[in-house]
Structures are given as C-alpha cells and as structure tokens.
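Regression test attached.
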Amino acid sequence: MVTHLTRPVLHGSPYRADCPARRVLDRIGDRWTVLVVAALSDGSSRFSGLNRRIEGISKKMLTQTLRTLERDGLVRRTVCPGVPIRVEYTLTEAGDSLREPLRALQEWSNAHVGVISAAQEAYDRQEREIR
Amino acid sequence: MVTHLTRPVLHGSPYRADCPARRVLDRIGDRWTVLVVAALSDGSSRFSGLNRRIEGISKKMLTQTLRTLERDGLVRRTVCPGVPIRVEYTLTEAGDSLREPLRALQEWSNAHVGVISAAQEAYDRQEREIR
DNA sequence: CGGGATCCAAGCAGATACTG
DNA sequence: CAGTATCTGCTTGGATCCCG
C-alpha cells in the first residue's frame, strides 16, 4: 500500500505515476482495502468484528488499512469510551460512493471467472505440451 | 501479482481468500495490469510501444504482466515474423469488457481526488498538532 | 478491546547483461 | 525487436509481545 500520496496533479496522463486515477488504484489494489470497505458496508463496524469477518487479515494490516482509509476521508473513526473500549468505523459519504464502482468490478469478476479459469487451463496445457 | 490462481470456487464469501472477485481484484490491484489494459485500448499494441508508453515499467514487468493477462484470456499475443521480429498484443473480448468497470473506477478517482487530498491534508495537520 | 512497537522471512521488482 | 536470466535490495506483511 502506498502510504503517502504526492501532491495532486490534476488529470495527468494515465501513464504518469502522478495520475490521480493511478494513485487511487494503488489503494484499491492493495490486498485489504476493498475487503474492508465491503465489510463496512455489510454491517460490521467494530474493530474486532472486522478482524473476525475478514478472513486472513492481521490486526496490523487491519489497523494500517483503516488508518489509510481514515486519512483519505473514506472512513470515520469513532471512539466509544468505556471498559472495554469500543471503536466504531463507518464509511463516509465519499467512502460509500466508492461501493458502486467496486460492485461493478465485482460483478465483472463473477461474470468472467468461468472464461478466465478455462483460459488458464488451456494456457497451462499448452505450456506443458511444449516442454 | 498473484501468478497462480487456485481452482474456481463459485461465489464463495467475499471475505474468503478463494472468492472469485477477490482473485480478480488481486490482478487489478497489481501496479501494472490496469495501465497495460488502458494502453492496449488506447491504440498501442507492440511490445516496445507499450514499454515506451507506460512510464516507469520495466521490460521484465511488462512481459510478466502481459503473460498473466494472456494466460487469463484477456489479451491475445500475435507474433509477426520478420526481421526485426514484431509482436502485437490486443485485448480479447473479455479483456475489452473489463474496460467499462475500470473506466467507472477511474471516473470515481478523478471525481474524488479533491476531497481525498483535502482529507489527507486535514488529517496530517491534526497529526502534527498532537505531536 | 484496540491498538503500537519490534523483528524477521519471503517475495516482488529494478538493474544489468545476454540472446535469437 | 522482444524478450530471458540472474542478482540483489527493499518493501510487505505475519508473528509476537506489550500497553492503556
């Protein structure tokens, strides 16, 4: 995950490293951000709940991902004092608006898993024949 | 980049590691896949053309990314014999269909760069105040 | 409960050199 | 031109321990 974005350079070429879309994709790209956003819009909101819900994530990664999302203004962090302490995470309006494009991508995935898997098997079969 | 996908498990929980959408997102996530798809739908198709067009990519990474896309059936590789040799890459139909959800994501990015940058600056200001 | 700090292994990716 | 091969540094992230 890229932890520090550079200054905004409005609409640079998509092939430039400082292109805004590319900077955002770097976020989406990391292993956990999308899962956390999904879990948040799915009802979970407490730290331990997210930790349990997202299979395979470590506390370190969950913390790191949530911090970045919070810094980006996509997630709001609310501390509920008491013993034991409770921390709630919720999507901001911006974070919520990200759900739609993500859903589109997820739908594309589900729609194409089949052909992708088939293509892979065909490719691998070819590979083995050659050797 | 994940170079080897496991067997298809139809529509597992999004929080399971073997969820199809998650496997696809692992691809989208890597640093170059999206850029290569964009460059391919933008006209470039030869290896050296892509290499020049995508700023910062190395031949190694370009090759690796193209191989994976080819294995996934999203890109077709065509060798044009001759001296010097030429290799053309084109999006398959599946690869082409990926452009739309990616464009949606890019649009979201461009639409939210502003608020994200602002949120970051606010967050960082807070951080510095505390210390 | 919700983290922070530290340590360490693995693998990802860049640089360089070489090839058909 | 279109790659492959090797070497290496550096980031990523898991494990573990600690704290308020």
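Expected vs. actual: identical. The longest helix of chain B spans residues 99-130.
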